[in-house]
Structures are given as C-alpha cells and as structure tokens.
Amino acid sequence: AANELALLLDNSLQSMMAMMAMQLPGNQNCEKPGGAKPKPGQMGKKASEIGQMVDKLQKGSKDGKGESGKSSKEIGRILSEQEALRQMIEKAEMGKEGTGNSKPEILEELDQMEDLLLDRNITEYRERFKRVESRLLEDERASEERKQKEERKSSVGNRQQMINGLEENDRLRK
C-alpha cells in the first residue's frame, strides 16, 4: 500500500512539473548546468583577487611572520583560485568570448606558474602573474570594444530602416 501511494505521489508530481514546464518558454533542459560563460570583467576581477592573495603571501614571508602551515594554506587557496580562473578562461574559450589566440598561451603559463608556487618561488610567480593579469585585462578590453563596434553597426542599420519606413508611410499617405 505504501509503495502504491509513493508511485501515485511520484506520478502526480511528474505531471505537475510537466504542466509547469509547458507554461514556460523553451524546452527547460539546460545544456550546460552551472556552466554559464563568464561575464565581462569576471576574469580580471578574479585575477586581481589572486594578485592580492599573492601580495599578502609575499609580505608574510618577507616579514618572517609567515608560519609554514599558514603559508601552505594560503598557497592552497591561491592554487584553488587559480584553478577557478583557469576554468573561467576555458569556458570563455569554448564560448569564443574575448580574443581566441592568447587564451591557450595563458593556460600554459598558468600551468608553469603552479609549479613555481608549489616550489615556493613567490617572486617569480608574482612577476608572471602580473603578465597574465595584464593579458587578461587586455583581452577583456578588446572584447568590450568589439561588442561596442557591433552595437554601433547594428544601430546604423536600424536607423536606416526606420527612415525608410517613415518615407514609405509618407508616400502612402499621399
């Protein structure tokens, strides 16, 4: 009896969900669950966060206050943030967001930087990271410029269509 009740409830739940899905536009099947393309500026923001973490780690090691356990945790956090940045870059590459050619170079550079951080060569890591950060910011800036150019191009065509439509209306009225 309990199994029949569970099946009945499951069937009614499935039918209610199907009815709700029919009321919404689209087929309600996400092709990339949790995998939206990064928004403009997200990669640069993530890179600056990592840069601040590296600065903090470098200051702690210079002061001599950095305990080995604490610095290991900070390195672990930096590596996890760097991996999140890598995933953002890969998603942007799949979506053809930003410039396409420098992304594989940046990914390769991030691989080499991981080794530097694990070897605790923080100074070299920081220098390379600044180069990667500047490349990411340049890519995002170039992407934004391309989007603005596309918007300008499309608005010119819309204005011309609007003018042609008004001229057609004036001609039909006469």
Polypeptide structure, described:
It is a single chain. This protein is mostly helical and 174 residues long. Helix content is 80%, strand content 0%. It is built from 5 helices and no strands. The relative contact order is 0.09.
For this entry, give a set of tags.
174 residues; mainly alpha; 0% strand
**In terms of per-residue confidence, which ranges show pLDDT below 50 for 5 or more consecutive residues?**
none
Share of helix, binned: over 70%
What does the main sheet amount to?
none
What is the H-and-E element order? HHHHH
Number of helices: 5
What is the number of beta strands? Answer: 0
The secondary-structure class comes to mainly alpha
What is the rounded Rg? 26 Å
Overall form? flat
Strand content: under 5%
- Termini Cα gap: 79 Å
Mean residue pLDDT:
75
